[in-house]
Structure formats: C-alpha cells, structure tokens
Task: inverse folding
C-alpha cells in the first residue's frame, strides 16, 4: 500500500471540494478579491496534490527528485500571504506605534517555523534536496503565518473586518504549520507521519473556504 | 529537419504579418499577439533543446518538471509587457493572453509534428489541436488574470501573479505527464474540462453585463 499516494488522494479530494465551493461562491462579478485569493490558494493546493497523485500513478517519485507539486504548496502560501498582506492588512494596521506590540508578538509564528526547520531538517539527517525544498516551503510559510497570527490577535478597532475572520486565520496558520511539518516528515521518509499530516491538511483545506465565507458574511451585518 | 521548423515558421507568420497591416485595433492586437505566441514557441523549442541536454536527455523528466516552468515564464513576458506599457484592463489583457497561448500551442504542434513526422495521424492532429493549444491558452490566461492587477493593486500583483504562475506550471506539468502516460486520454480531456466552466462563466458574465446595460 502506497501511503504517499493515498495521503495525496485524500488531500487532493478535500482541496478540490473546497476549491469548487469557492469558485461557485466567490467567482462572480463584484465579489471580494480577498475571497477569490483564498479560493485560489486552495486551488493551488488541489492542483499541486493532483500533480503528485498523477506522478505517483505514472510511476514517478515525489521524494527523490524535484517535482512541481511543491509549487502548489508555495502558490497556496503565496495566496494566503497576498490575501492578508495585499487586501486586508492596511484596513486594520495603520503602521502606528500603538500596534507595535501586536506586530512583535506576530513574529512568534515565523520564528517557530524557522526553529522547526532548523532543528528537524537542516540539522537533521535529511538529503540536500529535502533541505532545499524544506527551506523554500518554510520561507513562504513564515511570511504567510506572520499575517495569519497578526490578524488573529490584532484588536482591529476601526472596521472590525479582521475580527470576523479569526477562525479562518487560525486555520490558515495551522495550514502553514502543517506544510512545514509535512516537509519534516518527508525529509525523514516517515510514511505514517506524512499520512497523518496529509489528513490534517485535508481537513483544514476543506474547511478553510467555508470558514472564510462565514466570516465575510458578518461584514455586511 | 531543424530547418523545417524555421521554414514552417516563415510560412505561418509571413501571411499573418501581411494580414496584420490590414487589420485595425482589437483584431490587429489579437493577431499580433498570436504571432508573438508563435515566435515565443520557436524560441522555447530552442531553449528546450538546451534544457534537455542539461538533464542528460531525460525527456520525460524535463517535459513534466522543467519545461512547464520555462514555457509559462516565457509566455507570460509579452502579456506582462502589454500590461505595463499599454493597458492592464482585464477585457484587453485576457484576450491577448489567450491569443498568445493559442499561437504558442499551434506552433508547438508544428514542432512536434516535424519531430515525429512518421508517427502522426489525423486522430493525432484532432487530439493535439483541441488539447495542446487550449491548455497553453488556459495557462496564459491564468497568469494574465494576475497581471491585470499590475497598476491597480501592486501588492496583489507581485504575490498573486507568482502564485498563478505556479498554478499554471502545475497544470501544464499534469497535462504533459498525462499525455505521455497510459492515462493519455485523461490528458486530452483535461483542457476541455477546464475550458467549459470558463466558457460558461464568460457566457453568464456577458449576459449579466447586457442586462445591466439595458437597465
């Protein structure tokens, strides 16, 4: 039984379910770009996983050599980062000293991910390829996680738009963590750990778009 | 045989260039970008030969992992140029992105035909004609969607376009992998499966625009 194949199929199905839900719900004229970016993040994840599934089914490997599935993870993290940094952040944070405390606390998320990478991949017994791919994923996960944690703890006194999206930001933060954790599991060739992490990732990606949709519904109330 | 690709390039592009002089505005833009797509395809065919040599001739690995990245980046450049220099209006950028992709796909079929002249058939032409060009067009349109934000929302443009580029590369890689495997029919159907919802959305969008104009 190929654990990697089953794990990827589960995540792929979950991601496609979330993606289709997002497409139906948000890809209409005059819908928020923010929601469309979250949908595209899940879409990236879905296509990345589909690539890995097809690669495994056609006799290829997803561990021993560089493969495009990693771009799915990077793309999804970029979308999560872009959605918060490009569309949301300026609505809550005006850059004043008043919120410096929250900005500093938010650094805890990227620092944690960096420590995980350093301890378990870079200074562990991983191959050079695993170290490089792990580093790339960690860098993108770090930037996405910073804004997810920031929007989770930020008071958002003016508009309250970010306050409605706390559950979504929590899920997105867990997703960043799961991406780095999966890189650790793959670098150690641990099939069981990869399988468990993929199931957790699947549960996150299937819930992330509906959660964001529920949060955004409160904007109009 | 190598010269044959250049001969076919001239045969295809020369009449299109002459036609370009007679066309105006939108039609000229679309045909112009189709020619650019063909030229980009010619450039990429040379680039792919270099990449293939770099990876010791492992064509399966190169076509499923490396060329999707190189092709998508090179295809996006003319669209990006248009968005920066002329207009980032979505109604203008998306058609030229589609035209670039179709031109690219058309000429890629020509290159593959020249390289496999003994193995091609009418069914090959039908399958490649409907799938490859469509796949390239969908990939370029995907990137074009992000490029539209270049002047409106810079923050969204940088990250969004990179992420969409990643998405297009993966989609391209899936297609290339499927068409070279035992599941090749899934590969041939993949672009159509993606194209039909886009067509449906475009139809709905068009109708809703018409209704708004009437009101």
Result:
């Amino acid at each position: 039984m190929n654990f990697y194949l089953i794990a990827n199929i589960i995540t792929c199905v979950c991601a496609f379910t979330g993606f289709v839900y997002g497409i139906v719900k948000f890809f209409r004229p005059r819908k928020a770009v923010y929601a469309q970016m979250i949908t595209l993040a899940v879409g990236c994840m879905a296509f990345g996983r589909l690539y890995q599934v097809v690669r495994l089914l056609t006799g290829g490997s997803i561990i021993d050599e560089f493969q495009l599935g990693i771009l799915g993870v990077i793309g999804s993290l970029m979308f999560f980062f872009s959605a918060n940094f490009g569309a949301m952040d300026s609505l809550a944070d005006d850059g004043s000293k008043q919120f410096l405390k929250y900005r500093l606390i938010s650094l805890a998320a990227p620092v944690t991910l960096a420590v995980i990478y350093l301890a378990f991949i870079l200074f562990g017994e991983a191959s050079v390829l695993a170290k490089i791919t792990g580093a790339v994923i960690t860098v993108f996960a770090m930037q996405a996680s910073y804004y997810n944690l920031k929007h989770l703890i930020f008071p958002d006194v003016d508009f309250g738009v970010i306050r409605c999206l706390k559950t979504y930001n929590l899920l997105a933060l867990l997703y960043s963590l799961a991406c780095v954790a999966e890189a650790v599991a793959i670098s150690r060739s641990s099939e069981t750990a990869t399988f468990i992490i993929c199931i957790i990732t699947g549960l996150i990606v299937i819930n992330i778009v509906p959660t964001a949709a529920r949060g955004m519904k409160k904007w109009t109330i | 045989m190598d010269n044959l690709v250049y001969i076919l390039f001239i045969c295809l592009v020369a009449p299109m260039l002459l036609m370009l002089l007679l066309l105006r505005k939108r039609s000229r833009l679309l045909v112009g970008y189709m020619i650019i797509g063909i030229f980009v395809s010619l450039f990429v065919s040379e680039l792919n030969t270099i990449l293939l040599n770099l990876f010791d001739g492992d064509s399966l690995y190169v076509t499923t992992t490396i060329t999707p990245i190189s092709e998508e980046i090179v295809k996006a450049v003319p669209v990006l140029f248009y968005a920066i220099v002329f207009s980032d209006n979505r109604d203008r950028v998306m058609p030229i992105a589609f035209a670039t992709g179709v031109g690219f796909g058309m000429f890629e079929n020509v290159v593959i035909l020249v390289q496999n002249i003994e193995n091609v058939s009418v069914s090959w032409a039908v399958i490649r004609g409907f799938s490859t060009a469509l796949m390239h067009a969908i990939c370029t349109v995907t990137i074009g969607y992000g490029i539209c934000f270049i002047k409106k929302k810079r923050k969204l443009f940088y990250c969004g376009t990179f992420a969409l580029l990643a998405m297009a590369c993966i989609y391209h890689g899936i297609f290339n992998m499927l068409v070279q495997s035992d599941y090749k029919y899934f590969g041939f159907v993949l672009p159509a499966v993606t194209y039909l919802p886009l067509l449906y959305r475009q139809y709905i969008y068009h109708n809703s625009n018409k209704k708004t104009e009437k009101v």
Notes: DSSP finds eight helices and no strands in chain A.
